Predict the 3D structure of the following.
Amino acid sequence: MRVRHKPWAKDKIEAHPNWVISDPASMKGSWQKVFPVEQPLHIEVGMGKGQFITGMAKKHPDVNFIGMEFQGSVLVEALDKLLETPLENVRLLHNNAKDLAEYFAEGEVEVIYLNFSDPWPKKRHEKRRLTYSSFLETYKTLLSKEGHIELKTDNQGLFEYSLESFSDHGFIIRNVSLDLHGTGDLSIVKTEYEEKFSNKGQRIYRCEAWPK
Ligand code: SAH
C-alpha cells in the first residue's frame, strides 16, 4: 500500500504500546493475556490502514483480532482508528510476516486473513508473495486444528499462484469465488482496496485454504 512517508509514525507507534504490541515474541503462546476475554484469535497479515480489522472486530466481538503491517506510515492509520474508537478485541503488530513463527505458538491462531496482498508479479520477487512456500509452511504451524486461511484479491495472477501454492502445500481449497461482489453476500466487511477496486467494477477473487 502506497502512502505518504510519515517520519513521525515510529514515535507515535511507540507511544501506544497498549495498541501496538512492541515485543510480540514475548507474547508467544500467551496472546490471550493481552485481551480482556479469552476467545479465538484471528490475524490479518498485511493489514493496511485497518478498515477490515476494525470492521470485523465490531461485527465479531467474540473474536480477538491482530492486524500485522510492516509499514509504519500505513499502520498509524489503523492506530488512529483505535484511538478514535477503542476496540478491546483488537491489537496491532508493526512487524514483518516472515517472522510470524517467532511471535505465535503452534496452533495459537484460528484464522489468517490475506487481503489484497502485494502481487509481486516478477518471478524474482516470488519469495515476497504472502502465499510463497515459506509463508504457507509457517501459517500451517500456527493454525489450530479447525484453523484456516481466507484470501481475497483483485489480482488474477496472484490468485492463480496462490491456489497452486496452497495445493502444493497440502491445503484443501474451499469457498472459491471468482466474483465475490457479483455473487456474494453484500454484508461482508470490506478492506480499503476491496472497496476501491469493487467500486471500479473490478472482480474480486476469494478462497479459503484449510490444512489437511
Ligand atoms: N489488507 C489491506 C492492505 C493491502 S496492501 C487492504 O486490503 O486494503 C498490502 C499490505 O501488506 C501493504 O500495506 C504492505 O505494507 C503489507 N505487507 C506486505 N508484505 C508484508 C509483510 N511481509 N509483513 C507485513 N506486512 C506486509
About this structure: The radius of gyration is 16 Å.
